[in-house]
Structure formats: structure tokens, C-alpha cells
Design a protein that fits this description.
heterodimer; A: mainly beta; three-stranded antiparallel sheet; 0% helix; 44% strand; B: mainly beta; seven-stranded mixed sheet; four-stranded antiparallel sheet; 11 strands
Chain lengths: 112, 117
């Protein structure tokens, strides 16, 4: 059971917008900790999509955006493309676990 | 641009010790946090623990009793030992830079470790 809760799957047609939620608590997302998002393509290493809640590393398209409010965070993907089909994970830290890293359970995005 | 490469046995017997090494190239191991993360079949990512280049460690409480992570600055490597393994430890193991308060900005390609007799 992951500390951060994500929907197991989301889907959308090419060109559409999808959002992936990441729900935590007052000891992680609702505390001082930032939320980061990773894209994991099969057979590849995960790569960071969003860091510090809403920042994109260079090279990540602006179709990807992140937000955080209270004890939850969201990843939004606009203009969905076939190559966006992947697993997405949120990550933060948890003060109840002595500042350990915590991940969401992952969300499988299917592009219809 | 730092590159990370995991290495170690792909098969470990139950009750034995899983040992993996992560070798860095393109950057020094100094001044960063380094972590081990695993992805189990049908599960999500699980953080195992981290080491700072000073050797200070921090482990996932759920694995703490079985985990040791160490750093070898002379070889630009850090290592993972997980004792008393069971089938539940079968996973794709990644090494990554980060885990000390921020995000993981570089990852290895991962190495699959199966626990089986």
C-alpha cells in the first residue's frame, strides 16, 4: 500500500487533456515537502517530468504541467500524444517515516 | 552528464544476500545523495534507502533491518546489500542520484534480480 495514492489507470484520445492525481496527507504533501513526477516507459529508466511541484526540466514539453494544493498534487498532460503512453509516478517525502522518500503507486496512461 | 550502471547477480537464492553495485561515469560521486529504488512485478516504485558521499545513510523503515548501503568514493561506486531475501524481493533494482530532499535527476537502466531456488 503506497503512502501516496494515484489512480491505477487513466486514458485519453490523442489531442485530449488528462490529469493524474496524487493524494497524500499532512505528513507528506501537506507538509513542507515538494512533489515530483516521473515518466516511466517500458524498458527505460524513469525520468523526471516535473520537479518542485510545477517546474519542468529542460527538454520536457510544456504540454506537461504540475500543481499542488493542500494534501494533493496533480499532473496534467495536454495535447495527448501516442508517445505519452507510459506509467507515471508522483514522489515526495514523509515526516512520519523520518523523512523517507515516498512514491505513489503509479498510474498507467493509455492513449486510445 | 552523469551515467549510472547497476551490476550484480540476476538470481539470488531465498534467505541469501542480494548484492548490487552502482558505478558512476561522467561525474564525481562526491557532494550528492545516492539512492536505491526497486520496482516489483505488479507494484509501484519503492525507495530502499540512500547514502551521502560522507557515508551517512537513511533507509526505508520497512526494509531497514535488512539493508546496508555503502559508498566507495575511490571507485565512484555505491552498493546495496539486502539480507534474508524472499520471493517478495524479486524486482527491477535501480540506482539513482537524489533522495536527500529533492528529486531523482539521474537513474540507471535497472537490473532485474530474481529470488528463486
Amino acid at each position: 500500500q503506497s503512502v501516496l495514492t494515484q489512480p491505477p489507470s487513466v486514458s485519453g484520445a490523442p489531442g485530449q487533456r488528462v490529469t493524474i492525481s496524487c493524494t497524500g496527507s499532512s505528513s507528506n504533501i501537506g507538509a513542507v515537502y515538494d512533489v515530483h513526477w516521473y515518466q516511466h516507459l517500458p524498458g527505460r529508466a524513469p525520468t523526471v517530468l516535473i520537479y518542485g511541484n510545477n517546474n519542468r526540466p529542460s527538454g520536457v514539453p510544456d504540454r506537461f504541467s504540475g500543481s499542488k494544493s493542500g494534501t494533493s498534487a496533480s499532473l496534467a498532460i495536454t495535447g495527448l500524444q501516442a508517445e505519452d503512453e507510459a506509467d507515471y509516478y508522483c514522489q515526495s517525502y514523509d515526516s512520519n517515516l523520518s523523512g523517507s522518500v515516498v512514491f505513489g503507486g503509479g498510474t498507467k496512461l493509455t492513449v486510445l | 552528464q552523469v551515467q549510472l550502471q547497476e551490476s550484480g547477480p540476476g538470481l539470488v537464492k531465498p534467505s541469501e544476500t542480494l548484492s548490487l553495485t552502482c558505478t558512476l561515469s561522467g561525474a564525481s560521486i562526491s557532494g550528492y545523495y545516492w539512492s536505491w529504488i526497486r520496482l516489483s512485478p505488479g507494484e509501484g516504485l519503492e525507495w530502499i534507502g540512500r547514502v551521502y558521499t560522507s557515508g551517512i545513510t537513511h533507509y526505508n523503515p520497512s526494509l531497514k533491518s535488512r539493508v546496508t548501503i555503502s559508498v566507495d568514493r575511490s571507485k565512484n561506486q555505491f552498493s546495496l546489500k539486502l539480507t534474508s531475501v524472499t520471493a517478495a524481493d524479486t524486482a527491477l533494482y535501480y540506482c539513482a542520484r537524489g533522495g536527500g530532499g529533492g528529486y531523482f535527476d539521474s537513474w540507471g537502466r535497472g537490473t532485474l534480480v530474481a529470488v528463486s531456488s
